[in-house]
Specification:
120 residues, mainly alpha, de novo design (two linked rop proteins), 5 helices, elongated
Length: 120
């Protein structure tokens, strides 16, 4: 039974990913922590925050879907930022590929929730 946004699998995954990303931003070179690091921190936190905010507005179909769309967009943004960290050799290739895979999967789950949320 879903009583809170915290009960949603997409929220739990998004929150866990945000924690992982934020713990690893300090591994970026100092000159990138205020640029790429900031983008990674903001986009990663945006995913679970928009799920939570959307859940509070779920009685308004368009508002809920708008927030889920923002979460999906932030997942896409994370793919770009993580790819840059990988291709610039700031983060380990395997670590980055695993994160990207999880963000792709999360984006798909968010899309399914967006399209079928009334059945959950």
């Amino acid at each position: 039974m879903i009583k809170s946004f915290r009960d949603l699998e997409v929220y739990q995954e998004a929150y866990e990913l945000a924690i992982i990303v934020n713990k690893n931003v300090n591994k970026l070179p100092i000159f990138e922590r205020n640029d790429l690091g900031l983008q990674l921190r903001k986009a990663s936190k945006s995913v679970p925050a928009n799920i939570a905010e959307g859940w509070a507005k779920r009685r308004f179909d368009k508002q809920f879907k708008l927030h889920l769309d923002s979460s999906i967009g932030s997942c896409n943004e994370m793919e770009v930022h993580i790819s840059m960290a990988k291709d610039l050799n700031f983060w380990n290739k395997d670590f980055c590929e695993a994160l990207i895979k999880r963000y792709l999967f999360l984006g798909g789950k968010l899309t399914n929730l967006r399209n079928n949320w009334k059945t959950f």
